Write the structure tokens for this entry.
Amino acid sequence: MKIRRFLFIAAAIITTMTCSTSCLMGRYMCKFALLPEEHGNDIEGDRAKAESHYPGILNWYDTLHDGGLFRDTTMVGEGGYRLHAVYASAKEPAKAQGTAIVIHGYTDNHICFMNLVRMYRDDLNYNVLAPDLHYHGYSEGKAVQMGWFDRLDIIRWIDVAHNVWSDDFMVIHGVSMGGATTMMVSGEELPEYVRAFVDDCGYSSVWDQYKHNLKQMFHLPPFPVLNSASIVCRQKYGWSFKEASSVDQLAKCDRPMLFIHGDKDDFVPTEFVYKNYEAKVNGYKDIWLAPGSEHAMAYKDHPAEYTQRVRDFLAIAKKQ
């Protein structure tokens, strides 16, 4: 009896310590992932990074911005936070092909993917809007939302953009977390003029992405840390890691989508794009693996081909 009691007490102590440890680790991971020290708020640093990748991009943007062709705007987003975006009309406004919304990635801001904004405005002649997501850039917010609540903000930006240009064709194009946001938006009820989506290296779900990050960065299995972190996220921010699923949203999407992914991406593993592609079972879809490209580098490595593939996709989407 004493041995049984001893084993029972020992098991209880171990269980309590394990639960306490996993809870603390879960809280740490949630804070680490959703409250990063840099979250697109280092504007000058991000300007320098953008210029290093795409020489001349800042002169292009600043000249248009100073000339009033790029404008800043704000709106009230999910949760009552003030959100920021920049927008510009197409290079040849009278011949505009439609409207594009370009969505940045994790810890980035509207400046970081100005190369795609320039692609849409100058090369494809689209009106374009580039928002700062919740808790990024000039936007307010309490934490990174990993695309899940961001999808609701993008729906608001869709209305804002349409009120400016009233186009009957709109494409949503996002990179990394912006790609996941795009896929998450695609499963919602949207206006008929939202006709196409482009996902560039987005993850299949927040759970899948954090599971990969845990293994890659900390050599840890998902249980129990990820489970605990997801519970903390639910308590603090109102959503869980598994709920924030690109795959589940894609299953509801019936509008054209182009999937782009670098075949050397090990941050958001290339295998995720196949999972996303297979999840979209309705409507036109296409996929392009950028040869030799690491995470979010497909355009930098292959600007001409990237632009042409997007151009060809949009031409097909307009016929759907």
In short: The domain at 43-205+244-317 is CATH 3.40.50.1820 (Rossmann fold).
